[in-house]
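Page 47, continued from p. 46.
Same chain as before, 144 aa.
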Amino acid sequence: RQLIKMTKKRRNGGKSRPGNSRGHVGNVRCANCFRCVPKDKAVGRYIVRNMVEAAAQRDMSDASVYEEYAIPKLYTKQGYCISCAIHAKIVRARPLDTRSGRVPPVRVKPGQKKPNIGKPLRDVKRSARRIPKPAPQESQEQQD
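Result:
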């Protein structure tokens, strides 16, 4: 009797736990839809934002006695289910040949120009991307 091995999409099975050590891990809730997701499967992002929004920062600095005051930041670790992470473009589907690559994408600092990743019509608006239809030549030849 011959066993047929099924194809496998991901070598880690979509989870980051080791193959032979843990059977179950704790659950986390998705930050967007509140779905229960295994902690090792959830897409985790560490978010650092200012406690005070930009509009209120200027009002606070005008009303403050101090010349310079460091406004505290809010540090949160958020987990997303795969569906919400793809929908919110936190992660993207990759082609088969680059899917196995574990190198993180190039980080671009604010103010720097994004690297060219091989999309020739990226800066062209959508209406200009469409291929124009060729004009019919036959009707002109019949009139002559």
